Amino acid sequence: MYIRTPRVEIYPKRIASNARSVIGECHAHGVQVACVTKVSCAHPAVARSMEKGGADMLADSRIANLQALATTGTRLPMMILRIPVPRRAPDVVRCADISLNSSVETLRQLSDAAGMFGLKHQVVIMVDLGDLREGVWPDHVDDVVRAAGRLPNLEVAGLGANLACYGGVIPTTEKMQMLVDIRDHCRKVTGLELGMLCGGNSANLPLLAAGGMPKEINVLRIGETILLGRNVLDRSPWPGTRQDTFRIVAEVVELERKPSIPIGYRGQDAFGGSPEFVDRGVRLRAICNIGREDVVVDNVYPEDPGMIVLGGSSDHLILDVEDAAEPVKVGDEVGFYPGYGALLTASTSAYVQKVIVNDP
């Protein structure tokens, strides 16, 4: 039976196995796991696999994704990762049990919305530990916590941080201890318990595994290491996990022998870039029916190690298949393993079919 391309193949049993391995290690260190579904666009099969693997919470950055997760019948608490837009506070408190915040004005809006629906909404105040993405600067976290604590329909669950994202700052024992110390100071000046310390994401796992995580850190937000089996600090395989959990499949629509270097005067490409080319001589090139509108083309890795991804346009991916292990012809399917960016865009693209494969 023909299953159209391009497509993302999802392997739920492999994802569940990864989840059991990673979550089991976190639980052994006293850390709960909020499993992040966003790279799969909150696909229900992915969420169910994480739940089977022992997830304590489900987390996503998009309101629409959390609303979709609610229809799966899960009873796990829901966490929204992206800092809320104040005007969408009513949607946030209805779809998420917990939100991550750094703005007092947004916290006021969340409290008002929660009161309107008769809810008690939990908030985590994010602290910027130097990655320079979201978070209150450490010198006035206590002011924000104190303000949040006065709002009638909020529970200030604790503090959180995010590293190795925008700035690529690696989590260390010192960084995590800084979060603990800030929490202890906030406890002292506000009288709030602040029981949750949400120390970060998949980038924290190497520190945890090495025994360097302060015992007070009790929640991590884990997505990529479960879903792709990768150490996100260097993308090496994470021990005890599989990396064949997702597969992107495209179809060859053209096969021609062509030079490696464009011929003629060159300006910018369609995306405003000026790509560099390696002169390999005349080579056999294949064009596949997936492009930048669907996937990050330089973040897909052919299953056949003899194939080389040369680049892509909006609609096409260009491969060098001169040294492919098997002869390639028009109409053949080509499989790729996606990196994080490629999986994120392919999962989001309406033009890429999502297919469940129940292989072990």
Automatic annotation (TrEMBL):
Keyword Isomerase: yes
Cofactor: pyridoxal 5'-phosphate
One Pfam entry name: Ala_racemase_N
Gene3D superfamilies cross-referenced by the UniProt entry: Alanine racemase (3.20.20.10)
Domain Alanine racemase N-terminal: 13-226
SUPFAM superfamilies xref list: PLP-binding barrel
Signal peptide stretch: none
InterPro entries: Ala_racemase, Ala_racemase_N, PLP-binding_barrel
Alphabetically ordered keywords of this record: Isomerase, Pyridoxal phosphate
Domain of life: Bacteria
GO cellular component: cytosol
GO MF annotation list: alanine racemase activity; pyridoxal phosphate binding
PANTHER family linked: ALANINE RACEMASE, LYSINE RACEMASE
Protein name: Amino acid racemase
